Amino acid sequence: MERDSPCIPLGHIQTYFDLRKSLRLEPEWLLKKSHMTIDEPHEILEVIIGIDQQVFYRNAGIDYSPNEANRFVSTRQVVALVDQAVKALKMPYLGLAMGNLMTISHHGMAGVAAVTQTTLRECLDVISRFCDELFPPLSMAPRIEGDLGIFAIREEISLAPYSHFFFELNMVSFYNIMWHLIDKERHDFRVDFHYPEPAWGNIYRRYFKCPVHFDQPETRIVGPASLAEAELPLANRLMAMSAEKILFENIPTRAMRFLPLRLRRMLLRYYGAFPSLENAASEMGMSGRTLRRKLAEQGTSYQKELDRVRQRLSREYFARGGQSITELSMMLGFTDSSAFAKAFRRWTGLSPSEFMEKGPTAR
């Protein structure tokens, strides 16, 4: 699945750009809530809320009709929408401002399904699953590492040149949700971003009530592992199930029908012991021959997808401070370190040692 694959529900994307349901329409309130600074406050309402939707979507190559169901758009088209909004407002940090405006209610049934889970871990698991289906260019995953709980966000399909917009929007939005769900006395968060601090880096610190770091191994919210089992104040299993059912009845999804994406995410679960093509096919409910044919129809192959996963995992290994090429080679299933080094140079144009020397600039 690439930038031009129509895999993102248009109904979901409209939640980014149609904030009328969750906003009080006074410019003064909007300025205070979003920390926006522009010459004419009413421009915010005109551009984000009152912009002519037909023109807005048409400029991104989307033939838009109000209340249209079963429409999917591509990553490239979504990036074109962001480009219009950022340029119209002359606000490179728009992702931070919009993320801060997004309340739980603004996320609709997805928000209800998430916050009515029993624990924070279950809440984040649900958010991750929704992301897989509703916005596959990003993936989200909670995990525990020792005494730390981590909620990481990664880019699966290039969102350049507005990758930062999507990381900013989601990090602020989910940070705020977690802030309100967890007992204030138990807050001990930090937020990390995998990219260098942008020119507007000081603005990040307006939105997070915790330390903010750049040039980190990954983009993530980090807190105490003990919070994973924290019981949520709105826990209601029946409501959670009902909300998820309503969500997927009203917003069509197709992301996980894209075979390369399904395969890639399955392979990530097998880090250290990748299955053969035949075993992978069996787990996905088909024969090896069928898997090979279906991947070929989508312009890829099992080996290409495996290499894609290996490249991602190797970059993450080095970003987290790993330095043993022999260890990484074995974890990724290579016969020896020289075979891994050859593959790594093919992926990145650098040897593993050169990549480590360059550090964050190589990523």
UniProtKB/TrEMBL annotation:
<dbReference type="InterPro" id="IPR020449">
    <property type="entry name" value="Tscrpt_reg_AraC-type_HTH"/>
</dbReference>
<dbReference type="InterPro" id="IPR009057">
    <property type="entry name" value="Homeodomain-like_sf"/>
</dbReference>
<keyword id="KW-0238">DNA-binding</keyword>
<dbReference type="Pfam" id="PF12833">
    <property type="entry name" value="HTH_18"/>
</dbReference>
<dbReference type="InterPro" id="IPR018060">
    <property type="entry name" value="HTH_AraC"/>
</dbReference>
<keyword id="KW-0805">Transcription regulation</keyword>
<dbReference type="Pfam" id="PF12625">
    <property type="entry name" value="Arabinose_bd"/>
</dbReference>
<dbReference type="InterPro" id="IPR032687">
    <property type="entry name" value="AraC-type_N"/>
</dbReference>
<keyword id="KW-0804">Transcription</keyword>
<feature type="domain" description="HTH araC/xylS-type">
    <location>
        <begin position="253"/>
        <end position="358"/>
    </location>
</feature>
<protein>
    <submittedName>
        <fullName>AraC family transcriptional regulator</fullName>
    </submittedName>
</protein>
